[in-house]
Each structure stands twice: as C-alpha cells, then as structure tokens.
From TrEMBL:
Species the sequence originates in: Rhodinocichla rosea
The EC number(s) this enzyme carries: 2.7.7.41
Organism phylogeny: Eukaryota, Metazoa, Chordata, Craniata, Vertebrata
Alphabetic keyword roster: Lipid biosynthesis, Lipid metabolism, Membrane, Nucleotidyltransferase, Phospholipid biosynthesis, Phospholipid metabolism, Transferase, Transmembrane, Transmembrane helix
Encoding gene (name): Cds1
Full protein name: Phosphatidate cytidylyltransferase
Pfam families noted in UniProt: CTP_transf_1 (PF01148)
EC top class, as a word: transferase
Amino acid sequence: EVDLEERLHELDLRSDLDIPDVPPPTDSTPEILKRALSGLSARWKNWWIRGILSLAMISGFFLIIYLGSFMLMLLVLSIQVKCYHEIITIGYRVYHSYDLPWFRSLSWYFLLCVNYFFYGETVADYFATFVQRREQLQFLIRYHRFISFALYLTGFCMFVLSLVKKHYRLQFYMFAWTHVTLLITVTQSHLVIQNLFEGMIWFLVPISSVICNDITAYIFGFFFGRTPLIKLSPKKTWEGFIGGFFSTVVFGFIFSYFLAQHQYFVCPVEYNSETNRFVTECEPSELFQMKKYSVPPLLQAVLGWETVNMYPFQMHSFALSTFASLIGPFGGFFASGFKRAFKIKDFADTIPGHGGIMDRFDCQYLMATFVHVYITSFIRGPNPSKLLKQLLILQPEQQLSVYKTLKSHLVEKGILQPSLRG
C-alpha cells in the first residue's frame, strides 16, 4: 500500500511537471479606473474595480430583461459560446507546443453540432405551429435527429483521420476535453432556456440568487472573514459563506414577492405565430396568486402574527435560494480546482477584477440543472397548450381519431351527455 501511494504521488508530480506554464492574463482594467484608484492599496483597488464592474453588469442585465425574453435567450447563447471559448483556449494554450492538427476547428465544429441538436429540439417542441406553416423547415424538423447524428459522425470521422503518430494519447485526451466542455456549457445553457420558457421568474430568481450570494459572500468575507472555508479557495471564509446564505434567502423571498405580482415575469414564454413575437400573457397559476397561511405557533410569539399573506412561489424561493447558497458555491470550488490543476488564476481576463465570463458563471450551471429538475419534479404538470400544438400538426385523419377517442372517454366518464353520442 505504501509503494502504491508513493507511485501515485510520483505520477502526480510528473503530470504537474508535464503542464507548461500558461502566460498570466493581462490587466484589462480601463486606464480611467487605474488613474482614479491609483492611490489605493491593492486590496481596496480590487474592491472598487469589482464593485463598479458588478454594478455595470447588473445594469446591463436589467436592460436586457426589459428588452424581453428573446434577448435573454441571445444573452444565454452568447455566454455559452464565450465560456466554451475560454475553457477550450486553456487546453490549447497548455498544449500549444504539440501543435495538434484540427483541434481548434473540430472543437468549434462539435459546438455547432451540439447546439444544432439541442436548439433544434427546442424549435420542434415550442414552435411546432410556426414550423408547420413553412415547408422548408418541415424536412429539417422531421429528420432533425438523423441530421444531427450525421453531422456529429462527420466530426468523429474527421477526428479519427487527424490522429498523428506519437500524439495519440494527447489527442484522445483533448477529444475528451472538448466533450466534457460541451457537457458543462451547452447542455446547461439549454436547460437555462428551458427554464425561461416556464416563465421568466424561473430564470430570474435562480440567477439573481446566485449573483446575490456571490456578492454578499464576498462582502461578508471582505469585512468579517477570519476562518478559511476550503483549501481550494483560500479567500473564501465561513463568515462569508454563512452571511451569504442568510442574505440570499432574504433576497430571494423579497425578490420573488415583487416578480410574482407581474404577468410579464410569471407567465410561460410562448411564441405567437400570428404576430411572430414571444408573448407572456396568461391567467397566473395558483403559484402566483396571493394566499393566507397560518404562522407556526413558535413564530407567532415572536412575530405577533397568526396568519400571513404571501404567494406560494415564495415558499419555492426558499428551496432555490438555499441551493444557490449551499450547493451553488461548489461549482465555484470545482472551477477553482480546475484552475489550480492548470496553474492559472482566472479562465480569462474579459472582465477587469472578475476574470473571465466562466469565472462569473461557474455556479450558474449547477443552478440551472437544479431548477430544471425542481420544476419537472415538483411544479410542472400536463400542459394543455403544448399538447394542443402537437395535435394541430397531425394529419386530419389522425386528429379525427384523437377526437373520437377523447369523446368516447368523456362520455364514459359522464362528463359529456350521452345525447352527444354519434
């Protein structure tokens, strides 16, 4: 056992030595900020840079929300492409000396293939009526999965043809690198858009909770942090972790109350084929209708209230905020371990004081998966609107068969009068 541990340790050291040093990212801080903050210490300079850029990004995010759901989808797609670029670039820089043939071209080709598959599924699922009216799209939708497989198979064959003697292992390693990156970025961004279609509130509350936790944990850690939390992130502290948790839960509860009052945020995002626009108009579900709840006896003595009025969604916000605070940070820890493994400080230098786009969205991907699982497990039921869209694209004889079967079923259940038979 001792010999085995020594051999594993030697392999770890050898693998670390095999990784060449990656050039440190350049300082992309605007000159006007550098001059304005030149008199501050490095710690406070970083504080102000992070703060100013955070406010700028939040302001831009609110502007995109105002522009509508389609712009939010474009934002998600843009972030996905940039995160993919940052991770792939790290692999390319680390192993640039090997000059692998076709690596970068194949990486981007596989990105296009996977996006074509996932977003084609979304088009077929949510825009069936629109597709049915355009003959040129019907072929693409009908054979979508076959076309997607053929595109991927082409890339697979290109990879096999690109294999070079003495670099087989490294090429297969980078092939796996590309696919894991696709799994992290494309599939998760696809889930983000799926959540958005359920209602903008399912997009905004989770994302805002992660942002709130990131900001408040940094603030609490900056001013009160004393106890290290995890070795992977030496700057993270228990004080920041706990302060961020309570702040995020309170924020999620209040933010949910505000959003639940507006149809624009709570209605499912649907495409109106007549106006060629995304619409968010509906009768809000029970989740977004004010209800009266009894306060637990233990809290009645403290609050002095016997009942409280709130939206049911606010209770779900506790689950979303709790996950964002307790589990979401592990996405950041995972990213920190990844960066340490390849001896880099940040994924890129896109945002001054923050690093790359991936540095800011490392926790969001875990959150997207959780929200999607949460909706499908506890929220979503049968969707009559979605089922109706699927029925409308059937052939007339198929629609008639469905009609007769449904009519017979309703008569047997006593919902329709027997006089309506025939």
